[in-house]
Design brief:
single chain; about 375 residues; L-arginine/glycine Amidinotransferase, Chain A
Amino acid sequence: MAKSLKGASKTVVNSWNEWDPLKHVIVGRADFCCIPAPEPALDAKVPEDSDMRGMHGPRPQATVEKANAQLDNYAKILESRGIRVDRPTPIQWNRSVGTPDWQVDSMFGCMPPRDVLLTVGKEILEATMSYRCRWFEYLAYRPLLEAYFEDDPGMRWEAAPKPRLTDKDYRADYLSDKIGIEKRLKWMAEKYFVTTDHEPLFDAADTCRMGKDLFIQHGFTTNLKAMNWMQRHFPEHRVHPVNFPGDPYPIHIDATFVPLRPGLIINNPKRKLPEAQRKIFQKNGWEIVDAAQPAHKTPPPLCYSSVWLSMNCLVIDPKTVCVEASEVYQMEQMDKLGFEVIPVPFRDAYAFGGGLHCATGDVYREGKCEDYFPKQ
């Protein structure tokens, strides 16, 4: 039987949105992280001009240590604000794994809890994941989930149906190294992504939680069949597919569309929400503001993500936000929007799975389920 975390107060699971006061969170670790070997889902994501194409294996130990130092510091900053921080239990990601349908040379890591765990109210849901190398990633969080389940009699612990991830889940068109940006953008406008709708596939980091409404990005890592599954799984919620045609590599929503507080969202100016999909926000008085430009021209070394991790922030409460410390333009914008800005050095951790929001998983935020979009 799982035991309560040593030295920690009793857990209560509760989080309905991205902005209510944060009191308990999971922050990831970089230990043993790997650059995964080629596979259909991964190949579609790696930019065609990236020097990471064809690279795989354990990340250099010096980079792991730098990333962990910044993750540890991030945890201390949150703790200094009265937030309880838990950490996952890394496993040896540099090992070959497989199922009866496939085998991969290594796994990925556990820096980004946001990718794997979706907290909706009293429930923590383990996502299916859409990469074969990330199929077993939930294992790093099982000791925490077992303890939360033991502590909180009201917690719902769920795991979405594990997909088979056969070749039927991926479009062979994306296996070419020479698709080109023009064709990619055409495919994005047509909603023709690397993942098919053969079975439900989703990463938790494609979902924006806004009370009774879940806005979910349709792209490389989440398909429409998953949204159908989510609507059935959360019947009291309204599930809305959103997409961003300007993004040639649509994976996860947190560098594209970020709610900051009720009525306010920042949107990547290169990946604008289509006008037809803006209607629900406009009807309900929400303002969608173009995010500030990134401070950097290129991502850090060995990083899949774009420079728009600049807008991947963590909202601690409706007046306080964590922003990466070198992203001076994003911090300036947040200040003008009325936030207390907490600068957090984090660029050394980017390559291990994303930005400040990616590196966390909500356990408890004050507040209850509200209807922020009564006009549907």
